[in-house]
Amino acid sequence: MRFMSTPPVDGLLRRYVNHSATWCHKIGDMSYEDGAMLEPLSVSLAGMGRAKIAVGDPVLICGAGPIGLMTLLCCAAAGAEPIVITDIDQARLDVAKEICPRVRTHKVEPGISLEEAGAQISKLAGGNLTTALECSGVESSIAAAIYSVKFGGKVFVIGVGKPDINIPFMRLSTQEIDLQFQYRYANTWPRAIRLVQSGVIDMKRLVTHRFSLEDAVSAFETSAGSAKTGAIKVLIQSEV
Question: I want to staple 139 with a disulfide (CB 3.0 to 4.6 A). Which of 165, 185, 194, 226 is the partner?
Answer without folding.
Answer: 165
